[in-house]
Amino acid sequence: MTMQPGALDHDHERPWANQEWARFQQVQRMVNHWDRPGWTPGRRSYHWLVMLGHLPALTAMATHCQAQLRDLPHLDLVPPASLHITMQRLAFTDEVSPDVATAVVNDVRRRCVDFPAIPVEIGPLVGSPGAVRFSVGPPEPISRLRNLIRESIAEVRGPAALRERASKFIPHVSIAYHNTPADAHPLIQRVASLRHLRPATTVIQSVDLVELHREGHQYIASQHAEILLVS
To answer: Which of 170, 222, 230 has its CA nearest to residue 205?
Structure first.
């Protein structure tokens, strides 16, 4: 990754970023990201993630944006080392056995044996009702990879295990989570002032199954398995 924070760019050639920004501008109220069904104290979840915290240019861009957002209330900043794309939840760890998780991993590995690494751009900054985040695209190859993961989950656990529609997926990298319901407009205005930063470029070379838990207002991920894509 070679792009540096502060470089100017335009997103007219990134329709996915334009669409996500247009949606965020229509948000009236921010919500509490942490108020999510099933996340009781101490509970853990198997999630498929693309881990990105090792990429210097992305972490520099995230740190720059976080510094400009730090004075706003109600934001929990994501540690740069924890930056990621959430692909798909498998299940809470008390809902499936380790053998089932391993069976899903093996099926994903089989389906991805010829899946090519994915060049992507991360940015510009946008948001959702519960977070501030970078757009990621083009979304189509990321969605294809996610669909293979979903097919594996359905194969091992049955279609009923896939609770959300595949069409709801929007690839993104969150840099801050909103922790209190509040007026969205001040945050939207601040995000608008940071959208001039040039997106960072990288290649997604792997996807991980992690065991995810929450410590306060922070996600902690422990790698369970790694699937390498074809470079």
So the answer is: 230
